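Hi there,

I know you've been waiting on this one. I reran it after we fixed the sequence typo, so this is the corrected version. Both the input and the resulting structure follow.
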Amino acid sequence: MEYRYLGRTGVKISPLCMGTANFADPTTEEEATRMIDTAMDAGINMFDSGNNYADGECERIIGRVFKKNKLRHQAIITTKVHYPMGTGPNDHGNTRLHIINACNDSLQRLQTDYIDLYQVHRPSSIVPVDETLGALTSLVQQGKVRYIGCSVHPAWQIMEALMVSESKMYARYVTEQPPYNLLDRRIENEVVPMCQKYGVGIIPWSPMAMGVLAGRYEDADRFPDDSRAALRGGIYSERVTRKGVAVGRKFIDLANEHGISPAQLAVLWVKDQPGITSPVIGPRSVEQLEHLIPVMEMELSSTLQEKCDEIVPPGTAVANFHNSVSWMKMSIS
């Protein structure tokens, strides 16, 4: 397996990143433990988390697993800051106050002295980026954080952050973590070219489009009871559109014609796109994880690339996976 560099750092990560958003919601700790062990045995060394996942229980599970297996220093552990972690007026956002408090809390839950990659979960329209970067730089200088990154930021805000880091000698974003799949290709217009130009790694989430590309949803108006759209509703259910489900059917037929499962092809497509470092996969079980592990050794053929481009042209979208932010405008019917 060929490892990839994390942005312009010398850190090598696996071509697939293990997402943990399902830990504790609904994946049990026992199953999560088996999943982490299985992933590491297969060569996956990057584990993506967030402090708000399952109200912090996700981080606690990761902390207990790595304390038990004693493989902490072989893993690249990421987590995030931004969303509310309490009821107080300062328990959220991208302020220095919240970032430092949230980092200390994450370190405690993860039972570790440092976070390998600490990411700003969403951009702020209120807090100046120099305050955010100043706080993150302090954490790097204290040894609590190794590298910093951002998630679901527009290209101009990533570029602004890079410029502020350069001018003020602050820590620099090494990664951006956007939504990216065949149903929503809009990052190809500006985010991907900008990241390629300035050496920012891209670790996209939802490569299977929340399961739409794997046949999870047969009807955009009726969801399986145990699906994310049904269990969590809101922005999750909004991502399942009639156009998306229709594209999903075409995609499934394409995968079957070429002897590959739709889930594998969805992840492979993202993994092998220009500028992509490592897609974040989010399996619920060891079985689902083992099904995706072979993708690390696969290569997307030019024929499949062209067929996928015919289904959804480059730079376009048939479902809105940026609906957790207000800066990306789109009307989906």
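Quick highlight: The longest strand covers residues 145-151.

Best,
R. S.
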